[in-house]
Structure formats: structure tokens, C-alpha cells
Design brief:
Strand content: 15-25%
Order of helices and strands: EHEHEHHHEEEHEEHEEHEHEEHH
CATH class of the largest domain: Alpha Beta
CATH topology of the largest domain: D-amino Acid Aminotransferase, Chain A, domain 1
Radius of gyration: 20 Å
Number of strands: 13
CATH superfamily of the largest domain: ATP-grasp fold, B domain
Distance between the termini: 13 Å
Structural class: alpha+beta
Bound molecules: adenosine-5'-triphosphate, magnesium ion
Length: 354
């Protein structure tokens, strides 16, 4: 069995699509990566002697893969439109029988769809705020909702379609926002009870065989999970108070108008344990693999409610939430990237059991 692989890092790159074509929302492609992130991932993989290349996740991908013949793919591609874009590259790699990192097709498709994800969590007894999906915009709001409500596109990331106007206080504001989102983002709008409490994000790494395949087996508990220190986002003084929006997500940590980031969050041990338990259950119930980041917010009673899960969490060094969390406990970027690789390689049978 080879121990040095040819690895293709597969991603969608931001500036390839500038200017934004007509008919697309103003924040289109916000979730795409920068070439600096690709270079950082490649450098991390090369630390262990692997050979790497970058392949763009567009229509040329099947041909580029056939030419490069990778042993493995490190996938961070957001995909190119449709109703499950984050599952497109995994689906292609399954057809070509090339192993790849992190979650597979179904979990990536489900996690992009926030309504579907919440239905699954609710069915599994996990806490989610009341929600209703609007497909045409003409549906009647369920009578049990209480304003204010929060409205967002059902299938976007990186705060796309989310700004201060996401919080609505009246039926009129609600109708306007729903129609705006459906028209602009060409997908259903998700309406939820507004969660007014503290906001956290919980990154996890691992799975049942993590201790076997990781280079850092001591990171993982007996079930195979590692929870990073919890990150709290304080948006109360940011440009769009109480909302971690697209603009805030595009800013570096530090400028006065960006949210406050606290990691590890100053919370009591009971809440900390509960947030970590919820993030692991959120990950398991959608069959996510190896890595994810779950957003959780407290409701007006102080109870944690799951907002959404990211099965392809951003991994831009010193910038993405997951990297800030890893930094907070002294985990080096290369070690994070390499563990994402080796957990996947173990699952796909590329590593001999030690
Ligand atoms: N029901 C809600 N109540 C209060 N705030 C919410 C609610 N849903 C979302 N938010 C706010 O909007 C932000 C973005 O929402 P969400 O995490 O669903 O979107 P996203 O764009 O997929 O995020 P990510 O960048 O993590 O992929 C949250 O971090 C939170 O600040
Ligand atoms: Mg989020």
C-alpha cells in the first residue's frame, strides 16, 4: 500500500467568476475559496510528502481528473448551482471511483438544504426553532409563529441572502423578504423563530475509527470525536446587529464593524457539554463524516437551538471559524488538514490498520 499519494485539491475559486454575471444575486460566489487557501491546503498535504495539484470544480473537472489520475481528492468544492451543489463533486468522484475527504453525497446534499436538515433533526428529537418553508411566497404563515421572525434562503452558505433585514417584525416585512429571497436566490425561503440569545459554533473532527487512522489519536475521545473549543460570535456591535451576515463573514477578525470572536467561549461546563453533545448528534443524524461545524444559538429562554450544519466548513487559515477554533487549542493548520485527509483515507481503505 502506498503511503505517499497524488492528491487533487478540488475547489471553486472566487475571482474566476468576477464580475458576477447578470441574473445572479449580488453576493453570489461568496462561499467560494481564495487561491491562497488552496495553496495553504496543498502546502499542508505536502508536509507529509504527498504530491498535490489544484483542480477547479467546473465542467472541465471530469477531464482534468482523468488526466491527473489522483489517488485521492481533498474536496472543498461548493459546486455550481442547482439544488445540491455541495454534493456535485462527491457524486462525480463516486462515479469515477476516486476516494475523497469528508462527507459523501447525501450528507453534503442534506446539509446544504437547511429545511431538510431541520426536519431530520426535529424527527430525531434535537432542538430546532419553529420553521416553515415558503416555495411560492403565497403560503399562509402558520398561526403559532410569533414575531420577530428570521428569514433566509433555504440553500445558501456564508451568510448569503442574510443581512439586517433578515429579522422581520410584521407580516408586511415578512412578505417582502420572502418574495425578495425567492426571486433573487431562485429557491425557497426558510422562515424561523428569531433566536435572540448568544450564538456559538462548534467544530468537530472524527468518527468511529478516528483513533485508528489519525496521526494524533490522543485528540479523540472513546467514541472517536474531537470537539474544538467552542467559538462564540458576538454580533451585537457589528454592522448588522444580532446577525452574522454575509458582510461580517467576509471581514477579517478585528475591524470594529466585524463581530467579536471569543474562543474558547466563556460558558459554564454544563452548557459547554450540551453544545458539544448537540453538535455531535447533529453531525451523526445526517450521516456527516470526519469534519463539520454546527451553528447553535440560544433562544429567549436560554435553551440551545440548532441553526445549521456545515459539512464542508471553510478552512482558510487564521480566518475560517474552524481554523480559529483549532488555533485556540494550539492545533497547527497542517495537522488539521492532514487529519481530515487521514480520517478519510482510513475509511476508504488506503491506510493499513496499525
Ligand atoms: N433563526 C435564527 N435566529 C437568529 N439568528 C439566526 C437564525 N438563523 C440564522 N441566524 C443568524 O444568521 C447567521 C447565518 O445563518 P446560517 O448559519 O443559517 O447561514 P449560513 O450562511 O449557511 O452560514 P455559514 O456561513 O455558517 O454557512 C447565523 O450565524 C446567525 O447569526
Ligand atoms: Mg452558519
Amino acid at each position: 500500500m502506498k503511503s505517499h499519494w497524488k492528491i487533487a485539491v478540488i475547489a471553486n475559486i472566487k475571482n474566476k467568476y468576477e464580475p458576477i454575471p447578470e441574473g445572479l444575486p449580488p453576493d453570489a460566489f461568496s462561499d467560494y475559496d481564495s487561491i491562497e487557501t488552496i495553496d495553504a491546503i496543498r502546502a499542508a498535504l505536502e508536509v507529509d510528502g504527498h504530491t498535490t495539484t489544484f483542480i477547479h470544480a467546473d465542467r472541465t473537472l471530469p477531464y482534468a481528473l482523468q488526466e491527473y489520475q489522483p489517488d485521492f481528492c481533498f474536496n472543498i468544492a461548493e459546486g455550481l448551482g442547482g439544488d445540491a451543489r455541495e454534493a456535485q463533486v462527491p457524486a462525480l468522484l463516486e462515479i469515477l471511483e476516486i476516494p475523497y475527504t469528508a462527507s459523501r453525497v447525501l450528507a453534503n446534499a442534506i446539509s446544504l438544504d437547511k429545511t431538510l436538515t431541520k426536519r431530520i433533526w426535529r424527527d430525531n428529537g434535537l432542538p430546532v426553532s419553529q420553521f416553515q418553508e415558503f416555495t411560492t411566497g403565497n403560503e399562509e404563515l402558520e398561526a403559532t409563529f410569533e414575531f420577530p421572525l428570521f428569514v433566509k434562503p433555504s440553500r445558501e452558505g456564508t451568510g448569503m441572502g442574510i443581512d439586517a433585514k433578515a429579522i422581520v417584525y410584521s407580516q408586511k416585512e415578512l412578505n417582502e423578504r420572502i418574495h425578495y429571497l425567492i426571486k433573487t436566490y431562485k429557491q425557497p425561503a426558510l422562515v424561523e423563530t428569531f433566536l435572540s440569545g448568544r450564538e456559538f459554533t462548534v467544530g468537530i473532527l472524527g468518527g468511529s475509527e478516528a483513533k485508528v487512522y489519525s496521526k494524533n489519536p490522543t485528540w479523540y475521545d472513546e467514541k472517536g470525536y474531537h470537539c474544538f473549543p467552542i467559538l462564540e460570535l458576538d454580533t451585537s456591535h457589528s454592522n448588522s446587529p444580532w446577525v452574522y451576515d454575509n458582510e461580517a463573514k467576509s471581514k477579517d477578525v478585528g475591524p470594529p464593524e466585524s463581530p467579536g470572536y471569543f474562543c474558547p467561549a466563556q460558558i459554564d461546563s454544563v452548557l459547554e457539554a450540551e453544545l458539544k453533545r448537540l453538535a455531535i448528534r447533529a453531525h451523526e443524524t445526517i450521516n456527516a463524516l470526519d469534519v463539520s461545524r454546527t451553528d447553535i444559538r440560544l433562544d429567549k429562554h436560554g435553551e440551545p437551538q440548532l441553526i445549521e450544519i456545515n459539512t464542508l466548513p471553510g478552512i482558510s487559515p487564521n480566518y475560517s471559524d474552524l481554523c480559529l477554533q483549532a488555533n485556540a487549542e494550539g492545533i497547527a493548520y497542517a495537522d488539521l488538514v492532514l487529519d481530515i485527509l487521514y480520517l478519510a483515507a482510513g475509511r476508504w481503505g488506503l491506510i493499513k490498520e496499525k
